[in-house]
Each structure stands twice: as structure tokens, then as C-alpha cells.
Design brief:
2 domains; mainly alpha; 67% helix; single chain; disordered N terminus; 267 residues; 11 helices
Length: 267
């Protein structure tokens, strides 16, 4: 009798444990489901914000020294004879191994090709490197852009295409690399490259910095590849000029920060 009682108690304990386990498992599953729903809402909210940022970015004019035609800058015959020695060598493309690195190098080479053309330097090596990077990246979104040499402009058209193809994280890699390279180039000859800037153009640069840093910072929670980019460009938030004179001063003061950002993300 005593033996039966012990068995009964043991059986009851097993049943209770099983029921409790099922209940705990159910509670955990419900919690995970709730967490997943909340996470989805957060992600949707962030996505809406980033979409809005991209739309704002697309409305900004390109920096004058990378513009063509009206609004751009022109060099004298004498100025063109002094070739810049600070541009990236086209073969830097061969050093890019990860997909994120290839996007960034592509964008930076786009910018430097513009400067090379401005000084009437040969651009064939840039064209070959850019073409190869585009082939390696194999992003169908690029088909939405007529000229591959304008990918660095990160237009709304490009964003929409990359959104459709699930690559908006790489859109911001392009944007960050272009921003850093443009700031770096600008800092090499501020008197010339800022000569056609207006205070409005300077404000556009400041706003460009703000929105790109904001988007990248928000994406760090979802994309490990963008974390080092966020860390590299974060110091650039000191650039908040609203006038040409302020921009000249701030670029000089931030030279080391800009150089460090370039070395960190364009490699």
C-alpha cells in the first residue's frame, strides 16, 4: 500500500511537471510572439524614418565641385596643370573584399573620377575599376540609374530601387563613403572648392551630414557591417556650419577627423 502511494505521488509529480512545463513553454512562446510583434513595430517605425531621410537626401543639390554645367566650378588652364595627388588610385578596388567594402569603394571612386575629369586627367582606370566593382556587386538596383558614374549621388530613384531589392543598408554605405570622400576632397583646396558655395549650399552639406549620420546610427542595430561606418563618421557631427566662412574654419579644425574617417571606411 505504501509502495502504491509513493508511485501515485511520483506519477502526480511527473504530470504536474509536464503540465507546468507545457504552460511555461506556452508562456515563453507567447512572450516571444509579443516581442516579435513589438520588434516588427519598431523596425517599421525606423524604416519609415529612414525612408523619410532618404527622400530629404534626394532633394539636396550635389556639392558644386561634383556638379556638371551650371552650378559647378570651372578651373583655369593654369589650375588644371596642377594635378591633385590626393585622389584614390583606381586599383584600390582590388583591395575590397566584402560586399560592404565594394559598395563604399565604388562610391568613393565615383567622386574621385569627377575630380579627375575636372582636372582633365585620364579616367580610363577609374572607369574600368567602377565597371568591375559593379559587376562584382551585381546589384539589380543599379539598372535604375542611367549613368553608373553618378551612383555616389544616392538619388531617390536609386533608394527606391535598392529598397525594392532589399539593399537599403548598402544605400547608406554608398552615401557615407561619398560624403566622406567629398569632405576630404573639399578640404584639400577649400579656397577653390568652396569658391562657388553659397550659405545655402553649406547648409545643405550640414543637413546631408546630419541625415546620413542619423540613418547609419539607426541601422547599426540591424547590420553589423555598418557599425564600423557609424563609428568612423560619428566625429563628423562637429561639422554644422551655416555659412561659407564657418565651413572653411570647421573643415580646417576637423581635418584629422575627416582623414581618419576616410582611412576607416574607404579601404
Amino acid at each position: 500500500m505504501k509502495k502504491l502511494s509513493v508511485l501515485a505521488i511520483a506519477f502526480a509529480a511527473v504530470v504536474f511537471a509536464a503540465c507546468g512545463g507545457q504552460k511555461n513553454a506556452q508562456n515563453t512562446e507567447e512572450a516571444d510572439s509579443l516581442k516579435s510583434f513589438e520588434q516588427q513595430q519598431i523596425e517599421a517605425s525606423i524604416k519609415m524614418h529612414i525612408d523619410s531621410i532618404a527622400a530629404d537626401l534626394g532633394k539636396l543639390k550635389q556639392l558644386p565641385f561634383v556638379q556638371e554645367g551650371n552650378g559647378g566650378i570651372t578651373l583655369t588652364k593654369e589650375e588644371k596643370q596642377v594635378k591633385p595627388d590626393y585622389l584614390l588610385n583606381a586599383n584600390v578596388a582590388e583591395e575590397a573584399t566584402t560586399l560592404a567594402e565594394k559598395y563604399r569603394i565604388l562610391s568613393a571612386l565615383n567622386v574621385d573620377r569627377k575630380i579627375a575629369a575636372l582636372y582633365e586627367m585620364p579616367t580610363e582606370d577609374y572607369d574600368k575599376a567602377i565597371t568591375k566593382l559593379i559587376a562584382d556587386i551585381n546589384d539589380p538596383s543599379f539598372k535604375a540609374i542611367d549613368d553608373a558614374n553618378t551612383l555616389f549621388e544616392t538619388s531617390t530613384t536609386l533608394y527606391d530601387a535598392m529598397d525594392e531589392n532589399g539593399r537599403i543598408n548598402f544605400f547608406w554605405q554608398l552615401a557615407a563613403a561619398a560624403l566622406v570622400e567629398e569632405l576630404y576632397v573639399m578640404n584639400q583646396n577649400t579656397d577653390k572648392f568652396l569658391s562657388t558655395f553659397t550659405d545655402e549650399a553649406v547648409s545643405d552639406v550640414t543637413f546631408r551630414i546630419i541625415v546620413i549620420l542619423d540613418a547609419i546610427d539607426r541601422l547599426t542595430a540591424y547590420d553589423a557591417d555598418i557599425k564600423p561606418v557609424a563609428e568612423a563618421v560619428a566625429p563628423l557631427k562637429v561639422l554644422n556650419a551655416t555659412s561659407v566662412d564657418q565651413m572653411k574654419t570647421q573643415l580646417t579644425e576637423a581635418k584629422d577627423k575627416i582623414d581618419a574617417a576616410r582611412k576607416a571606411i574607404i579601404k
